[in-house]
From TrEMBL:
Alphabetical keyword list: Isomerase
Keyword Transferase in annotation: no
Organism: Sporosarcina psychrophila
GO molecular function terms noted in the UniProt entry: phosphoglycerate mutase activity
Isomerase found in the keyword field: yes
UniProt-listed CDD domains: HP_PGM_like (cd07067)
Leader peptide range in chain numbering: none
Domain of life assignment: Bacteria
SMART domains in UniProt: PGAM (SM00855)
Entry EC no(s): 5.4.2.12
Transmembrane regions listed in the UniProt entry: none
Protein name listed in UniProt: Phosphoglycerate mutase
Amino acid sequence: MRNIILIQHCQSEHHINNMSGGWTDTPLTDLGRKQAKLIGDKLKEEIVDNNEYAFYSSDLLRAAQTAEIIGNQINLKVIKNKGLREINTGIAAGKTKDWARENRIPRKNSGFDLDYQEFKDGETWREFYSRVCSCMDRIYEMEKGGNLLIVTHGGTLGYIIAWWMKFEPKRIVNAYFSSSVGGITVLSQNSFQQNVLNKFNDTSHFPLLN
């Protein structure tokens, strides 16, 4: 049976300096590095045989640095994959949250719209989900039944879960999985070959960090 361990990257500079997320490429904070080390400590206890896992990460700094710290602790080499990035925010990348609020494309309605493009040159939600699903299909096939450890972003992580649950795009209009910084999620298959969400957004490895 396959296990997929998903980790949302740890605290990044964009969380504390009013920068937008998406493809804005910011490094981890000192706290984020401490959080990543704690995740590595936890995984050392939970992963019995590291060689059973292929380790993938988004290539954006905040995810790649989280993965590097974890990889050094559990002795796994990280494979960076651009397909695991957060949603492409187009011209908002590198801009402040204030700039993003003032320059996003107006919504046509108040509900969730799969084909809404928030920023010029960015992805719609449908395009984002399609990219994540295609990326995971390629990784899944490449690793041929092996276990996966993946460090990625909040939106991407939620869409990986939706991919695992075989959601058609229309399903994500009314459902979303909202994880948090450094959270660990575990997916698996049971004896009936059903895809299972075993654990979602576990942050029990974090004490009160200052």
